[in-house]
Amino acid sequence: MLAYSRTISVGVQKQGEDRRVVSGILEDELYAMAIELAIHWPTLTIEALQTRMKRFTTARCPLAESVFAQAAGWKLGLDLDGKIKKELGRKGCRHMATLMIECCRNLVRAEFSREFISAREKDQDIDAGAFVDRFYSRYPDLKGYLRLQ
Amino acid sequence: MEELEPGLWQVTTRYDDNLFSAQVMLDVRFPTLDIVRADLTVRRDVLRLAKDSTISAENLIGIRIGPGMTQIVRGIFEGSSGSNRLTDLTLEAMEMLINALTVPELRKAVNAGGVALDREKEDSQISLNDKVIGGDMVELMAQNPRLKDSCAAFSGLLEKASSK
Q1: Is the Cβ pair A59, B133 closer than 8 Å?
Q2: Is residue B92 located within the same domain as residue B64?
Q3: I need a labelling partner for A92 at 20 to 30 A (CA). Which of A13, B42, B57, B135 fits?
């Protein structure tokens, strides 16, 4: 018998050249929550975010929504996971922090994937390793963050 | 997470996107929480960058889920033959086991000290919360050191943050 199950789902949308919108949901038998982030893509900056605690365990949990609002202005990069865990997870909600980490990393993976698929359509024999290196040279802050290996 | 037999649990984590798909399956003995079997499967890797997971899976056997597990797992996976994506999935599986173990405790607290949520504080017409753990029970649970460190609601940090 299945004793416990959690699903995290992330969707990414390109809104114009320099704006990406990510929406994520987390659901298990105790918790349900959602987050939406707007990211300025060339600078990798979180322009805005909104969170919603839908199902939770204590009356205090919804207070976490205001804690997450402070992430506006943060940038995607190697130190982001730690910052989310420390500043938002510990002081707000660690489940929402997990969801936010997934959203940010999967935005970058989606962007990488979109570019890679587009490049492969032009060159079937594209060298994936070399493409990754070129991607990192354009976005040095994402080296070590993307975690593709 | 699934109970295969009394005292033996199986945790499965999956990741899927259009370039990569993988699954980590861990069999864990309860109550010691040590891993007795591990299976790591990369189903799709379009970039072909994920490294061989066979050695890493074998090395997970015997690891105990609990404090220090992150460093141990990173040490196993992130050497020259390791895969950082499988590291993340493995750690997630371990965290899910810990989450699952807290569910009965939280359920018990809701049953013992659950209160109806003040609907006026909610901005939606349909609430997903029948009952939540009330203030008195939260205070009581906060005295449990393991719970206090696990969650801002029990540590009092949420109330501090909201009063700023």
Answers
A1: yes
A2: yes
A3: A13
Letter string b/e over residues B95-127, b meaning 16 or more CB atoms within 10 A of that residue's CB? bbbebbbbbeebeebbeebbeebeeeeeeeeee
User: Shortest Cα distance from A15 to chain B (angstroms)?
Assistant: 20
Nearest residue of chain B to residue A5 (CA atoms): B1
Q: How distant is the Cα of A65 from the closest Cα of chain B, in angstroms?
A: 10
pLDDT at A12 over 60: yes
Give all domains of chain A, ordered by start, each with its CATH number.
Answer: 7-142 (3.30.390)
Considering only the beta carbons, identify the residue of A61, A129, A147 that sits closest to B85: A147
Same domain for B110 and B95: no
State how far the Cα of B132 lies from the Cα of B141, in Å rounded to an integer: 13
Domain that holds residue B142: 104-163
- Min Cα distance A7 → chain B (Å) is 10
Is the pTM for the entire model greater than 0.90? yes
Number of structural domains found in chain B: 2
Q: Are residues B79 and B7 in the same domain?
A: yes
Q: Which two tokens stand for residue A141?
A: 């802050």
Question: Hey, are the CB atoms on A60 and B106 less than 8 Å from each other?
Answer: no
Among A79-93, A94-108, B131-145, whose mean pLDDT is lowest? B131-145
CB A22 within 8 A of CB A39: yes
For chain B, the residue count is 164
Interchain proximity B85–A4, CB inside 8 Å: no
What pLDDT, on the 0 to 100 scale, is given for residue A69? 95
Chain B window 6-65: which residues touch A at a Cβ cutoff of 8 Å? Answer: 9, 17-20, 46-51
Residue B147 confidence class, pLDDT cut points 50, 70, 90: confident
Q: Of B71, B100, B129, at which residue does a domain stop? A: B100
Comparing C-alpha atoms, which of B87, B88, B84 is closest to residue B49?
A: B84
Query: Do B10 and B50 fall into the same domain?
Result: yes
Considering chain A, what is the average pLDDT of its residues? Answer: 94
